[in-house]
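Lab meeting, item 3. Inverse folding demo.
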């Protein structure tokens, strides 16, 4: 798959994540046809979130956690998810069985 096609597919998948749901970097990579490209998904999010107006906050890591560090976006992502009804346990983890979106 060409890089541009993969990027386009990732952007469309991220746009498709419904409010109140999350997906993982790996799930997006898998759905876009390149299961080993989770880091590429992170790169696309980093470079395209603003210009493409992506719901970046709905993409988390495979452990059900926010990957951003405290004071580097973690609090904003958590707040945006909580505003959509996503709940975190006491350790900061999201229940993927409850909130994970897969096409």
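The presenter then showed the designed sequence:
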């Amino acid at each position: 798959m060409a890089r541009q096609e993969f990027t386009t597919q990732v952007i469309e998948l991220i746009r498709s994540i419904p409010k109140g749901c999350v997906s993982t970097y790996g799930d997006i990579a898998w759905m876009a046809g390149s299961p080993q490209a989770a880091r590429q998904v992170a790169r696309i999010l980093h470079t395209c979130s603003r210009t493409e107006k992506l719901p970046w906050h709905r993409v988390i890591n495979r452990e059900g956690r926010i990957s951003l560090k405290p004071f580097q976006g973690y609090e904003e992502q958590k707040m945006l998810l909580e505003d959509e009804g996503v709940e975190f346990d006491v350790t900061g983890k999201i229940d993927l069985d409850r909130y994970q979106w897969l096409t």
